Amino acid sequence: MPYYRTVGELPRKRHTQFRKPDGGLYAEELMGVEGFSSDSALLYHRFLPTAIVNAETVEDTRGGTVANLPLKPRHFRTQDLKWDEPDRVDAVTGRRLLFGNSDVAICFVAANETSPLYRNAFGDELLYVQTGAGTLETIYGALKVGVGDYVVIPTSCTYRIVPEGDEELRLFVLEATGHIGPPKRYLSKKGQFLEHSPYCERDIRVPTAPLLVDGEDVPVLVRHRAGLTRMTYANHPFDVVGWDGCLYPWVFNIEDFEPITGRLHQPPPVHQTFEGPNFVVCSFCPRKVDYHPLAVPVPYNHANVDSDELMFYVGGNYEARKGSGIGLGSLSLHPSGCAHGPQPGAAEASLGAERFDETAVMVDTFRPLNLGEAAQVSEDPRYAWTWARRGPDWT
After folding, report:
1. Backbone angles phi and psi of 275, in degrees to 5
2. Would the pTM of this model clear 0.85, i.e. be above it?
3. Is 270 helix (H, G, I), strand (E, B) or coil?
4. Measured between alpha carbons, how far is 57 from 226 in angstroms, rounded to an integer?
5. Dist. CA 254–CA 35, nearest whole Å
6. Among 126, 145, 268, 361, which residue is least crowded by beta carbons within 10 Å?
7. In what helix (H) or strand (E) does residue 390 lie, and over which residues does it extend?
8. Mean pLDDT in runs of 10 for the chain (395 residues)?
9. Phi, psi of 188, rounded to the nearest 5 degrees
């Protein structure tokens, strides 16, 4: 994250003696990315963060992926996904793999119970909250999350997710193999959001107080390059009395994204919200549309020759997709190698529109996306033929 924060108790100087009330030393932990050459946070633990008493391999059951063959546009319905034990789904172990490549795994979960303590040591995570509410508890402190929130969790941050209320906490999850943050073009050389950025520091929520939990022999599930391991810690990892730095979890709500509009149709980069390793994330929000007298407000047909375009539809009515079968909770995948555009009649129907009431999260990946188990069981086979109105699965 681009700006410095301080939370809880800290000594005046780094790497100096900082003592507990009983006279013992607090244990420092430097959480840093890119070795010691980029953003970091310095955390002060009541107990040694290195003290593990057991480690055991855990089977990763979510399976692999298959290629998008035959190559075609596809539509998936997350609202149709079912879990074997629907009353016992947590936001970590309940994730179902939708898509993946060597840069990112894209998952979905409808959670209703507290997750285990978890740490992704493979890369940053980005969670989008489609429905429900809950608390993200972390070693940095706790954050309330709700509908429309993007949640950025840095690599190796230990956390758990606690759903709250009667509604399922439905999460669209990106697990990167690197780091996720604001686009570099939005930031100054010193990391401040610039004036042309569609959001800024005032829109961001961060932990504001330590979260202290007592416990012994506490298991933490760790995802790493070789798979999954369950480590057991001598003391609860939520023992940080204070921290400072520029690396921490943070939340940004999609409603705080300020759309950039123009007289003619604006391309997707104006909607960009995050960037990750070989992918970008964009937010399509309710907005005033093109105001040239001859403007065609819906997108023109286009071929993204270097990327796959994945769109998650989360609010309103998406004008360009009317008549396609897409609804709230749907995902459309338009791969490189295929031109795509508005459904038949959508361009004409959009003429004269002044505003679009639509909300969607778009992920563009610069390597092809393969299909995971959850995509394979939730596909609408008719979608590819909705432009021509005929094809193998068309009735």
Report:
1. -135, 145
2. yes
3. helix
4. 10
5. 32
6. 268
7. none
8. 90 98 97 92 98 97 93 96 94 98 98 98 97 98 98 98 96 98 95 95 97 98 95 98 98 96 91 97 94 91 92 86 87 94 90 91 98 97 93 83
9. -75, 175
